């Protein structure tokens, strides 16, 4: 298969809002009112957890379809923690990013515990965002002229 090219543009909106655009879609990102925003949308870290959950759920569906597993319902819950100190310029030894992310799957299926573990391992190996977040990914940040 050919690689998929992903491109997103994020523009500054009113107050603390951010407008993210990809293909024909737009999402408003914001911060809670207690942090100076309007609470008009999720924060960027919340969007990352939403994207991870969506990617995991999508790969679960693909796996189930390919393996002819009946999944009556799927729920993915993502939890994580971020210390915002560095983002606000407060010196700390803690990292700026998530200190942890946990993904909990709730599958309504007839899979045995052994089959669930096999499913989980294959999911981890196939999920693009699991791979991106679980392994070092080169990141370049530069200025446009």
From TrEMBL:
What name does this protein carry?
A: OsmC family protein
Organism for this UniProt entry: Syntrophobacter fumaroxidans (strain DSM 10017 / MPOB)
> Which residue windows are transmembrane per the record?
none
Which Gene3D superfamilies does this entry report, sorted A to Z?
A: 3.30.300.20
The superkingdom of the source organism is Bacteria
